[in-house]
């Protein structure tokens, strides 16, 4: 057992609902790219520590991470989730309803950049963001998150290490280049204070200072 396994066993228990949702996603043949339970637990903790009320999730898949987020919001809190695939959004909605959270989530279906543009034009603001979608657009998603953020908001980007590809500087694939740009922007943007958690595939976390 390594330190990450020890911490996961001790702190990041998956309750029956989450376990069922994880199995449901796999059984449906959907990509098994949802956050691991210890990252879900960390996201839940960040939402609570920040007293977040309105969260924005970019990439719903089957609703696994959405449950971690929505559970941590207050009774009058709300999760907006962006998902390209309409069938995935239906599965996610079903799973949030199974968890008793259906009334706390709204799905925007279509390309996330278009949805983000609509949200910005409508004047929406959020205090927690989870970016976990197509890696090539992470830098653009970050720019929108900063624009849509209340001061003090938290931005989290999953897969920040991209299975080690971000530190293989010979890897010039669009995904690797985009993730390096995202990490560098998180680290250096004047409005952000950021750090990377290297558990799992890496979670980059930033606070929007103003």
TrEMBL record:
The lineage of its organism: Bacteria, Bacillati, Bacillota, Clostridia, Eubacteriales. GO terms for molecular function: O-methyltransferase activity; S-adenosylmethionine-dependent methyltransferase activity. SUPFAM superfamilies: S-adenosyl-L-methionine-dependent methyltransferases (SSF53335). GO terms for biological process: methylation. It comes from the Bacteria. Keywords: Methyltransferase, S-adenosyl-L-methionine, Transferase. This is Methyltransferase. PANTHER family: CAFFEOYL-COA O-METHYLTRANSFERASE 3-RELATED, O-METHYLTRANSFERASE-RELATED.
